[in-house]
Amino acid sequence: MGSLADAILAGDRRAAGRLISLAESRTSDARDELEILYRHGGHARTIGVTGPPGAGKSTLVDGLIARLRARGLTVAVAAVDPSSPYSRGAVLGDRVRMMRHADDAGVLVRSMATRGALGGLSAATGDAITIFDAMGFDIVIVETVGVGQSEVDIVGHTEAVLLLQTALGGDDVQAIKAGVLEIADIMVVNKKSAPGSDRMARFLRESLHDRPLRPDAWTIPVLLAEASEETGLDEVIDALFGRLDHNRQDTHMSAIRRRQAAAHLTALADVEIRTLMRRLIAGQTRPEAWQAVLERRSGPYSLAARLFEQLR
Ligand SMILES: Nc1nc2c(ncn2[C@@H]2O[C@H](COP(=O)(O)OP(=O)(O)OP(=O)(O)O)[C@@H](O)[C@H]2O)c(=O)[nH]1
Ligand SMILES: [Mg+2]
Predict the structure, then answer these.
(1) Buried-most residue among 14, 173, 236, 268 (CB within 10 A)?
(2) Is there a single domain that holds both residue 160 and residue 289?
(3) Domain range enclosing 282
(4) Does the pLDDT value for residue 153 go beyond 90?
(5) Is there a single domain that holds both residue 92 and residue 154?
(6) The ligand 1 atom nearest the CA atom of 229
(7) Same domain, yes or no, for 272 and 128?
(8) pLDDT tens, 94-110?
């Protein structure tokens, strides 16, 4: 034990990739290594980038990498791939686009698998952050499609969340998932040359204005960008650093650290409980219990309750 962790601490990228794969399949081997690495971390600044499919998240992240590198900062990216075959091309596109950083030792991009683990994606994302942080990357970016609660869980691991929107596709504020809106620290209307972008930005600003002041007294900036043309990216970087500086005020930081730790802990515990439950269900060898459900003499409700009692 500890050999993978040692290699990773020495900067071995292949070892990092191996441990992420182990973490994704949630083998217990990963746990001890991650535990070691976690104790070496706590220095990386973490950024979440979320938004609807095709909003330009990867394009924006690519532009951010270049600017962060220009400031002398090292950057690791965990990109959560959508599992639907429909998005496969875009995912490949991610890799191609980010290839321009492929020879840069200060940049590491890793796709996170969405298949396989039992709802373990959020846990694995937290693990990837643990690994990149231990390797000494200054900035860790998590890219994930913002379509549901699981994505909100994923960005919960980060301390600054950038929400990308576009005026395309008829999206409007009402269509933006409330949970994602809750967690956004910076909003960017991307593809700003598209018709309706200004209206969209105004709409966002107005609805944010009507909301109560956040406990951390942070005012959410709404920016416009054209990621593919690299326009508006300096403003996005400034806003991001503004947010990170704001977080440095210790009262905010401790709340954020607690939220991040809670997100990771919840994700890990979720996986453990699910795995245990599946094992219990698979090992439910009393055929009469199944038979009763199949013949509708009893329901899955009482059976589930009984299994849960066993779990307790
Ligand atoms: N016109 C225009 N196109 C853009 C802009 N940003 C990205 N695109 C294009 O939009 C498409 C999707 O961009 P991606 O960066 O892959 O978007 P994404 O949000 O990462 O997509 P998923 O990860 O699949 O959800 C690509 O064809 C980009 O070239 C922009 O600012 N303007
Ligand atoms: Mg993408």
Answers:
(1) 236
(2) no
(3) 267-311
(4) no
(5) yes
(6) 31
(7) no
(8) 444 455 556 788 999 88
Dump pLDDT digits (tens) for 238-296. Answer: 999 999 999 888 778 888 889 889 989 998 888 888 888 888 888 776 778 888 888 99
Comparison of pLDDT for 290 and 87, the residue scoring more: 290
Contact 203, 168 (CB under 8 A): no
Question: Does 167 lie in the same domain as 46?
Answer: yes
Cα(240) to centroid(ligand 1), Å:
20
Q: Supply the residue whose CA is at minimum distance from atom 8 of ligand 1.
A: 56
Question: Given ligand 1 and candidates 87, 109, 228, which is best to mutate, with the most ligand atoms within 8 Å of its CB?
Answer: 228
Q: Is the CB of 106 under 6 A from ligand 1?
A: no
DSSP state of 192: T
What is the CB-side half-sphere exposure of residue 84 using CA atoms within 13 A?
A: 4
- Is the CB–ligand 1 distance for residue 52 below 6 Å? no
Question: Based on the domain organization, do 50 and 97 belong to the same domain?
Answer: yes
Cβ-based neighbours of 310, under 8 Å, separated by 6 or more: 280
Query: Which residue from 50, 59, 162, 231 has its CB within 8 A of the most atoms of ligand 1, so it is best to mutate?
Result: 59
* Tokens, residue 192: 């700003």
pTM above 0.70, yes or no: yes
Q: Is 169 in the pocket of ligand 1 (CB under 6 A)?
A: no
Q: Over 70: is that where the pLDDT of 174 sits?
A: no
| pLDDT band per the 50, 70, 90 thresholds, residue 83 | very low
| Strand pairing report for 75-80 and 160-166 | unpaired
Specify the pLDDT at position 180. Answer: 62
Q: Whose CA is nearest to atom 32 of ligand 1?
A: 191
- 56 belongs to a structural domain: yes
Are 139 and 212 within one domain? yes
| Total of domains in the chain | 2
Question: Which stretch of DSSP H or E encloses residue 111?
Answer: strand 107-112
Alpha-carbon span 224 to 226, nearest angstrom: 7
Task: Answer yes or no: do 135 and 179 share one domain.
Answer: yes
